[in-house]
Amino acid sequence: MTTGFSEPNFSHVAAGHAVPVQGPLGSVLFAGCPDLIGTPFSYAREEEIYGEGEDAEFVYKVVSGAVRTHKVLSDGRRQITGFHLPGDLFGFEQDETHRHSAEALSDTKLLIFRRRQVERAANHRAEVACQLWGMATKSLRLAQDLTLLLGRRSAQERVASFLMEVDERLGGNGTFTLPMTRRDIADYLGLTIETVSRTLSQLSDEGALQRVGGRQISLRRAHLRRLVED
Amino acid sequence: MTTGFSEPNFSHVAAGHAVPVQGPLGSVLFAGCPDLIGTPFSYAREEEIYGEGEDAEFVYKVVSGAVRTHKVLSDGRRQITGFHLPGDLFGFEQDETHRHSAEALSDTKLLIFRRRQVERAANHRAEVACQLWGMATKSLRLAQDLTLLLGRRSAQERVASFLMEVDERLGGNGTFTLPMTRRDIADYLGLTIETVSRTLSQLSDEGALQRVGGRQISLRRAHLRRLVED
DNA sequence: CGCGTCTTTGACGTCTCTCAACAGGAGTGG
DNA sequence: CCACTCCTGTTGAGAGACGTCAAAGACGCG
């Protein structure tokens, strides 16, 4: 099942992390709209891209690196609503302000678009509006998958499901390095870092995966799949 | 319980009531597109509108009544992903099949649109595509709010937040009758019916609300608001 | 009135959280 | 090269919130 990574939002864009980064002028985002050329921009690890409540002036597309978007309560509880990898578009809002925050997981390159320009293009070109509609629909489906995960799945199911999703997004060969900390994982899965850590140890003991250090993981996918059957 | 299987007999209904189309909220859906006239259709309480995995041939707009959409796991665990009230559009998918099920909470009237027709209209008219984009974005925002609720809020916060949301969507005067069962509430909030019931009793004991029978509720909104501050 | 469904309440179990200590790496400076 | 610190991750013990199981009350409907 899906754990809510936002996937590349336009099917004609090459899928996965191995997207060849086209030069800023070669971006196929909003193809056919030469006026919608994104501006390249770089962010350092843990750098904030925008904060909740700020004016939503720009829209962002990941070129390389990774981004998380999240919401926070006043007492510090945090819920990550999505991880965004190369090819993903994020930061769109209906209102004038962002309803969540966005930060770079690692050193990250983005393309930035002026929201007003994108909206104007959508108003005039059905093709662009349909792309945006499709993007929103896809994000919605991912959010609803996450809803099921958070509302009805155990800690073990959440972690197993998460690992399989990461594997898929990062190449799907069963071996990868987690690009985020335990805290990010916990705040995405609605758990604590201790529960995430314990669950990983338990999965390792059961032979569902092998670990090298904290981040590098090899999955036994058949084993994991049995744990999250729906 | 539902015995009647809803099989939208299109031509029959269309013949019966070819009616001008306008939502009760006054919004005209797909204005300026006379070819996008929805067909009225009625569903009984608890009747299935469509099921997970079925072909997504139609899109639906609520005229009166209420609808729930949900996902289920093979062992019966259920997560309601949304309640849809008059004016809401639901049932749109990116793929060819529905990723969740939809049922009528109470006797419900809908407008049914052929998905292909809507998509064709969106492809030609930026105005229509923008409407669809806006509705999808609104649903997305609600889904992300639910994500935070499920991932990081206590049972009391979930129930209190839910009650305020229902109040708002049902007029916002603080007194209303819940249109759904405890099971629906529980499956929406990621809790059990016992926990929902106990939490309601507790809120009542604390003076945060008053109850008449099982469904009718008067909120002390100032009190409730303190419980869900973010 | 009788029956089924929905809701409430109680007793108990358990999964996850909280609090706390410790281990392993990476970076820094002596 | 080693000592030190910071940061992330792991593990343990105990607590607490919510779930499970069970029974009884409330409500609606034929």
TrEMBL record, chains A, B:
Cross-referenced SMART domains: cNMP, HTH_CRP
Q: Which CDD domains match?
A: CAP_ED (cd00038), HTH_CRP (cd00092)
Keyword annotations for this protein, in alphabetical order, are: DNA-binding, Nitrogen fixation, Transcription, Transcription regulation
List the residue ranges forming a coiled coil, or say none: none
Q: Which Pfam families match?
A: cNMP_binding, HTH_Crp_2
Q: Which residues form the HTH crp-type domain?
A: 153-223
What protein name is recorded for this chain?
Answer: Transcriptional regulator
